[in-house]
Design goal:
Blueprint lengths: L1 E5 L9 H14 L4 H5 L3 H9 L6 E8 L2 E11 L2 E9 L8 H15 L4 E4 L6 H9 L16
Parallel strand pairs: 4-5
Antiparallel strand pairs: 1-2, 2-3, 3-4
C-alpha cells in the first residue's frame, strides 16, 4: 500500500538512500558536470535545511509497505517557495507519485502566501523539464557555468 506523509527534519536520514540515487542519476546523466554531482554529500546538503524554521521547511516521504520510494523537500525563504529536491524510485515512476508530491508542496506554498514558486532543474534533464511544464512551470533564466579543469 502506497502512502505519503510529512516527516520532521530530525528524521531526514530516512531519505538518504533515495537522495543518493537522485545524486547518482544526475552524475550519470550530466554531460558536463558529472564531477560536480559526484562530489555532493548528503550530510553537507541537508545542513542547508537545518537552519530553516520548521514552518519554512516541508519534507514529504512516500512509502510502499515498508520501503521508502519517494520524497520531496521544499522551502520557503523570503516569501519564495522552492522545490529543493524530489525523487521517486525509478521502479515506481509513472504512477503519479511525483505529481502528487509536487501538488502537495505547491498547496503548502500557496497556504503560506508564496508569490513566487520555483524549482531548479538541470538543463540536460529534458524529462524533468517536461514534467514541470505539465505542472505549470516554465523556464525563467538559464544560469551558465564554466567547467574548471584542474
Amino acid at each position: 500500500m502506497i502512502e505519503s506523509f510529512d516527516i520532521p527534519f530530525d528524521e531526514i536520514e530516512v531519505i538518504k538512500s533515495l537522495w543518493e540515487k537522485n545524486r547518482k542519476y544526475h552524475e550519470d546523466s550530466s554531460s558536463y558536470f558529472s564531477e560536480a554531482y559526484r562530489s555532493i554529500c548528503f550530510d553537507d546538503r541537508i545542513k542547508d535545511f537545518e537552519k530553516l524554521y520548521k514552518e519554512k521547511l516541508k519534507i514529504t516521504v512516500v512509502k510502499d509497505d515498508n520501503e521508502y520510494i519517494g520524497y520531496c523537500i521544499s522551502t520557503i525563504i523570503d516569501g519564495k517557495g522552492e522545490i529543493a529536491s524530489i525523487h521517486v524510485d525509478e521502479t515506481k515512476r509513472g504512477l503519479g507519485i511525483g505529481k502528487a508530491l509536487v501538488v502537495k508542496h505547491l498547496e503548502w506554498m500557496n497556504k503560506n502566501n508564496c508569490k513566487v514558486m520555483g524549482v531548479t532543474v538541470s538543463q540536460e534533464n529534458d524529462y524533468t523539464i517536461e514534467f514541470y511544464k505539465k505542472l505549470g512551470f516554465y523556464p525563467n533564466t538559464l544560469y551558465m557555468q564554466q567547467i574548471i579543469k584542474e
